[in-house]
Amino acid sequence: MKKTGTLYLIPTVLAENTQDQVISPQVKETVQHLTYFIVENLRTARRYVKSICPELVIEQLKFVQVDKDASPAQVQASLKPLLEQGIDAGIISEAGCPGVADPGAEVVKYAHQKNIKVVPFAGPSAILLSLMASGFNGQQFCFHGYLPIEKRDRLQALRQLEKEMQQRNQTQIFMETPYRNNKLLEDLLATLHPDTRLCIAANITSPEHEFIQTKSISQWRGKLPDIHKQPAVFLIYK
Questions:
Q1: Most buried among 192, 206, 211, 213, by the most CB within 10 A?
Q2: Is 213 a residue whose pLDDT tops 90?
Q3: What value does the mean pLDDT take over residues 108-125?
Q4: 158-178 pLDDT, tens per residue?
């Protein structure tokens, strides 16, 4: 019986030039022996592999892009080398842990359907690191991804998150496209109850620019940080 390849979930950095601090030797040793990668973004994945394993010749490696717009056929095709040739593969997200708020989850789902062994490695997750640092409920929490773009829908979504927070005693976690961060902060202050607590976690793991603070909505008034175009996670809790 033909041996099937293994699918390794390769965590990446959240902040540039932090691979020596946050990426384990186990990840680097695994990447050294892989020749095939399924990635969210070709350019950032190639750059990341070169940063943790500079001895590898990138031109000799194969990278296949599976992003949020990938079709089921593309997802299935990405795993053919594992099924037909027994080649091992690594999944690489654009940032953080693959499969978590990441299109790599579809590849992993199909891998399980085909009985491909899946091996996750520990690495930095903006969602978990922000929750750890927030002081909020870590027993019950919900990640909502990106909020609606349209202002009316976004304000309605924020009111609903605050309602769920109260009813379920649940930390609510969400993100925004970095260039809309400051606008989201204005909406949070205008919409949420003054006593609701907001944690702003930006540039997580960056030695120089990391910003993580928790205050009530009323305490944030007039003291909001400028996090325009900076990767950030937002959390609310009572």
A1: 192
A2: yes
A3: 96
A4: 999 999 999 999 999 999 999
* Residues 11 and 124 sit within 8 Å (Cβ to Cβ): yes
Residue identified by tokens 């027994």 is 86
Phi, psi of 36 (to 5 degrees): -135, 130
Residues 87, 176: Cα–Cα separation, whole Å: 37
Q: Are 190 and 146 in contact (CB under 8 A)?
A: no
Give me Rg for the CA atoms of the chain.
Answer: 20
Model pTM?
0.90
Contact criterion met (CB below 8 Å) for 207 and 178: no
Helix, strand, coil share (%) of the chain residues, nearest 5: 40, 20, 40
Cβ proximity of 97 and 125 under 8 Å: yes
β-pairing, 232-237 vs 171-175, is: antiparallel
